[in-house]
Write a structure and sequence with these properties.
The complex is a heterodimer. By secondary structure, chain A is mainly β. Helices cover 0% and strands 53% of the residues of chain A. In chain A, strands 2, 4, 5, 6, 9, 10 and 11 form a seven-stranded mixed sheet that branches. In chain A, strands 1-3-8-7 form a four-stranded antiparallel sheet, with no helix packed on it. In chain A, a hairpin with a 2-residue loop joins strand 5 and strand 6. Chain A is globular, with a radius of gyration of 13 Å. In chain B, strands 2, 4, 5, 9, 10 and 11 form a six-stranded mixed sheet that branches. Chain B has a five-stranded antiparallel sheet with strand order 1-3-8-7-6, with no helix packed on it. In chain B, 39% of the residues are buried. Classes of the chains: A mainly beta, B mainly beta. Chains A and B meet through strand 4, strand 5, strand 9 and strand 10 of A and strand 4, strand 5, strand 9 and strand 10 of B.
Chain lengths: 114, 114
């Protein structure tokens, strides 16, 4: 069974631009969670989607948004990029029915904001 | 954001030695997970724990869910060079406000000298 895939793997943007990252979960998984990883803050939860609905959201500004499609694929968008948004963005998928199942991570998208 | 207290922060050991790391929290967790992350990659699941007192092994790795549900440890026996990496504990709290949300420790960086 294929694992979680994320595209693109690397991205360079400039301040003020916006970016969209994509995540394809493991087949049969319906929940996708997104995390931001930085050296200073570690791994921080952004939001979680299940059945095309956002079920939970972390403490990030509204510039960070996401969505989920009917095939469970998910995208996250960051608008008006800031230098501090440079990070590794990880998505994780799980079966999702209870919200507490084991999460499996993708390889991440490395975003550099200049 | 909220984090687990993971220790030690780093370890430099000789090949063949055993390794122990742990995570503690003031909160009660429903699930404890241990992941390993290599540079530039996403975290890979090592062991998942779901019940207080549960002791689970995966090859040379053994992890336990503390009976108070506020801590967990991971042991690696007879370390080998490929054990090098960053090990993260992650926990999930109960309740609908924590659906799909993992809280992570700061990570333990393991280096193994051949």
């Amino acid at each position: 069974k294929a694992g979680v895939t994320q595209t693109p793997r690397y991205l360079i943007k400039t301040r003020g631009q916006q970016v969209t990252l994509s995540c394809s979960p493991i087949s049969g998984h319906r929940s996708v969670s997104w995390y931001q990883q930085t050296p200073g803050q570690g791994l921080q939860f952004l939001f979680e989607y299940f059945s095309e609905t956002q079920r939970n959201k972390g403490n990030f500004p509204g510039r960070f948004s996401g969505r989920q499609f009917s095939n469970s694929r998910s995208e996250m968008n960051v608008s008006t990029l800031e230098l501090g948004d440079s990070a590794l963005y990880l998505c994780a998928s799980s079966l999702g029915a209870s919200g507490g199942e084991t999460q499996y991570f993708g390889p991440g998208t490395r975003l550099l904001v200049l | 954001g909220q984090q687990l207290n993971q220790s030690p922060q780093s370890m430099f050991i000789q090949e063949g030695e055993d390794v122990s790391m742990n995570c503690t929290s003031s909160s009660i967790f429903n699930t404890w997970l241990w992941y390993k992350q290599d540079p530039g990659e996403g975290p890979v699941l090592l062991i998942a724990l779901y019940k207080a007192g549960e002791l689970t092994s995966n090859g040379r790795l053994t992890a336990q869910f503390g009976i108070t549900r506020k801590d967990s440890f991971l042991n690696i026996s007879a370390s080998i060079p490929s054990d090098v990496g960053i090990y993260f504990c992650a926990g999930q709290l109960g309740g609908s406000s924590n659906t799909g949300k993992l809280i992570f420790g700061q990570g333990t960086t393991l280096q193994v000298k051949p």
